[in-house]
Amino acid sequence: MDDWEGMETTALTSPASEGTHGDSWNNDLSKFGRGRAGRGFKTSFSGRGRGFDGTDRSELDGGDDGVCENGFMGGSRGGGRGSRGGFRSGGDQGARGDFGGGYRGKDEEVFAQGEDKDPQRKGESEGERPKVTYIPPTLPEDEESIFAHYEKGINFDKYDDIMVDVSGINPPHAIMTFEEAALCESLRRNVSKTGYVKPTPVQKHGIPIITAGRDLMACAQTGSGKTAAFLLPILQQLMADGVAASSFSELQEPEAIIVAPTRELIHQIYQEARKFAFGTCVRPVVVYGGVSTGHQIRDILRGCNVLCGTPGRLLDMIGRGKVGCSKLRYLVLDEADRMLDMGFEPDMRRLVASPGIPSKENRQTLMFSATYPEDIQRMAADFLKTDYLFLAVGVVGGACSDVEQTFVQVTKFAKREKLLDLLQTTGTERTLVFVETKRQADFIATYLCQEKVRTTSIHGDREQQEREQALADFRSGKCPVLVATSVAARGLDIPDVNHVVNFDLPHNIDEYVHRIGRTGRCGNIGRAVSFYDPDADGQLSRSLLTVLSKAQQEVPSWLEESAFSCSGAAGFNPPRKSFAATDSRKGGSFHDNSTSSQPAVPQTADEEEWE
Ligand SMILES: Nc1ncnc2c1ncn2[C@@H]1O[C@H](COP(=O)(O)OP(=O)(O)OP(=O)(O)O)[C@@H](O)[C@H]1O
């Protein structure tokens, strides 16, 4: 057995929680109260007449795990808060012994290493943790599956009219066609099999910038093709420079590392890389939490040119000596503003300090997102060469105008009924419902299942296998409704998501922009409906006004009134970052505090884990 076999990543769950996730919603209601979801349900809702206890158990039994046919079988891992109070994951910790805990970002768990407030769980976190043994299913190898794609929408050509601004010294000319990108034959073939006929604006400008060897901070609206904008020129350069075909070695030294904040997103980026690299000697590999580390190490050792990873697992692999960084030529931060906010910044700094990693002068660093708060832009400069280019396609931080945004004023107690009404009109159309907490995700998914709406859920307390199953069931249409926390807000590219519902509005305007960007992608039309609770969402109202008007959307008069009344209340709004309108080097912030992204405010309750 190799040394790493014995150092398997430990689960996010405690031993006590193992086994409960699969059956906690099944037969034994006495088990139900043990998990976090159970506690939330009991305390918050049992008296409201919609509870489980009085309902027909047959609705909750049977069916696939995590899938609601007649009843929702998923739910949290039941580990309870304490199970993760001490660590995010043992695997991550393996490489991060020096990391004394800290805040992981606005929607995440507040954790302090080694500190566990729940005495019942304390022993568990100190003792043996179960290995993560989950090995994801092998991806299909046939071309039809690899190149499966959805059609671009009627507004795809409107992308050409979007205003583009490139700032920085001496930017290269944009390309107008993929032919001008001078891709090698195999890449050209793969692009065409993917159904891409012409590049989107971020590709027209981004591809030549990257090919010219420049560092880049690129901002373009959700669903406008940022992934190919970085993958294609990187793969092209690697091929052109005759990158060594991957072969087995105990230490792999990838030429490109791509990081993203969530497991599902990095896996999606990996699939895109695998598609574009199809039939070439370039080998992409993916690593992320919740999956057997041994399995991922075996995959890396078979050869790795492009390593896609979530930060924790990536650092773990570097720490274990399986991945070296001395040959690194490209470092890509997707959802860059997220990767550099309070949650992930320490990991990013640790990554660029990895042994042997080329300095920023000797590598290319590329950042992509749809949102860039000004303070994040300033910090990003630490990672970039001083002459980096800033590419803005449309309004920085703006919402995609192909998404029709509507708002419904509703109190928190009326939200469930409203949701049900809404889903009855949308029928089997795919709908993504965002809620604030993991507990809420379980609760709403269960409620909808009870109401015979085929629903599944995704959030950070579900096992990786369950998360993947939930996405698969949503994609396939088996469950046309997916209830999600912020873990699904960024980057996910799921065909035919017609509706996004903000059951709970986020606290942060950038988060809103990313969430509604799960629909209306690639020139398709989408709809977003947000439940606005005047008691809870007032602080977001002015930011919403700005986003709505910049996306040429109708602004309800009551929202306008709410925005003005809220802004009048002294001290009501917490301090915020400036919402950058463009390259912050040009002094481009709106300087309208109320429209800005807010700093991540540590939360204690039922917070989300991204990675
Ligand atoms: N040139 C193109 N022609 C047709 N389809 C494209 C083109 N470029 C990208 N797409 C498709 O558009 C969809 C959205 O692309 P992608 O996921 O890269 O968007 P994004 O800008 O990264 O979005 P987000 O900000 O949400 O992460 C994908 O399905 C992708 O395959």
UniProtKB/TrEMBL annotation:
SMART domains according to UniProt: DEXDc, HELICc
Name the UniProt record assigns to this protein: RNA helicase
Domain Helicase ATP-binding, residue spans: 207-390
Gly residues: compositionally biased ranges: 72-103
Reaction(s) catalysed by this chain's protein: ATP + H2O = ADP + phosphate + H(+)
Species per Swiss-Prot/TrEMBL record: Cottoperca gobio
Family annotation (PANTHER family): ATP-DEPENDENT RNA HELICASE DBP3
Domain of life of the source: Eukaryota
Chain positions covered by the region annotation Disordered: 1-138, 569-611
CDD domains attached to this UniProt entry: DEADc_DDX4 (cd18052), SF2_C_DEAD (cd18787)
